[in-house]
Design goal:
2 domains; 10 strands; alpha+beta; Jelly Rolls; four-stranded antiparallel beta sheet; 10 helices; 297 residues; Arc Repressor Mutant, subunit A
């Protein structure tokens, strides 16, 4: 079979092209610095696929098996692997990706498009300057689990803040997978990649709980004093202010549902009473939760 014409880049948030659009079902979502799409093949007809973009692309193949076909990433030897699930592939920004297959099973694959200059990332990380290596059909447990959680936000979103936190973790996992020695170094006195990853995971799982500085410092394996300084350098805010900002962002998402009262939202994001929630919300957003919801309407 011939390949799709990829002579012109599609753009930073380009979709992956499939030659038979009627045999696929797509779902997509976007957050700050990252865009995701899941493609389910619903008929077992041969097809071609491809993409070329100015964003990095992590490919999560949950189900993939073919009678025949090949997959290519520029700079990597093409693969004719017949069974390639569960496997990951990584296409750095500016590289071409294409292939064709006669499917043995109905393929399910998720494409995570990552902006190299994503605004959520610490500038000292210099993510946009890293020379990532293209990789085809590899396995990495930590990277897979983070990517799978982010894929889940397409179908059952928790909040934009949670998805964006996963995006930050994903960037650090990509750095580690590309060069483990880079991920282990703390940039400019900040937290190392593995520390930021664990903290983001813990905060996302316990966002409504009373998280103490001691708890967070223990996760990072630092003294509270050194942890507080390193945390601010890496995340831009002291721990307590960062936690508050994350809770307020979560509250904004919940306020979009008119079925939830302000008191219910306050409790859902970890405030003891509506009054303290309203005061914190006003300081952060500049208006009350009720006024914010009214503006949405």
């Amino acid at each position: 079979m011939g390949m799709l014409d990829l002579s012109s880049p599609f753009g930073p948030l380009s979709t992956v092209q499939v030659s038979r659009s009627n045999i696929v079902r797509r779902r997509a979502a976007s957050w700050t610095g990252i865009w995701a799409e899941t493609i389910d093949v619903i008929h077992s007809a041969p097809f071609e696929y491809g993409a070329a973009s100015s964003s990095h692309m992590l490919i999560l193949t949950e189900r993939g098996s073919r009678y025949d076909g090949e997959t290519m990433i520029e700079g990597v030897a093409k693969s004719t692997l017949r069974d390639f699930s569960p496997r990951l592939s990584f296409v750095p920004a500016g590289y071409r990706y294409c292939g064709w297959q006669k499917p043995r099973v109905l393929t399910r694959v998720t494409y995570l498009h990552i902006d190299p200059a994503g605004p959520l990332l610490d500038p000292e990380l210099r993510f946009s300057e890293i020379g990532f290596t293209p990789r085809l059909f590899f396995q990495d447990r930590d990277l897979w689990q983070t990517a799978l959680k982010l894929k889940g936000q397409i179908e059952s979103p928790v909040s934009r803040a949670y998805a964006e936190a996963l995006g930050i973790v994903l960037a650090h996992e990509l750095i580690r997978a590309n060069d483990p020695t880079v991920a282990s170094r703390a940039p400019g006195g900040g937290l190392a990649g593995w520390q930021q990853k664990r903290l983001n995971e813990y905060i996302s799982a316990h966002l409504v709980d009373d998280i103490s500085l001691t708890d967070l410092a223990g996760i990072a394996q630092l003294s509270p004093f050194h942890f507080a300084r390193a945390f601010k350098r890496s995340f831009g805010d002291p721990p307590h202010r960062y936690l508050l900002r994350r809770r307020i962002e979560f509250a904004k998402t919940l306020l979009e549902n008119p079925g939830r009262s302000v008191a219910e939202v306050a409790q859902a994001v970890g405030f003891a009473d509506p009054a303290s929630f309203t005061a914190a919300f006003r300081r952060s957003v500049g208006t009350t939760p009720t006024a914010y919801r009214r503006a949405l309407e």
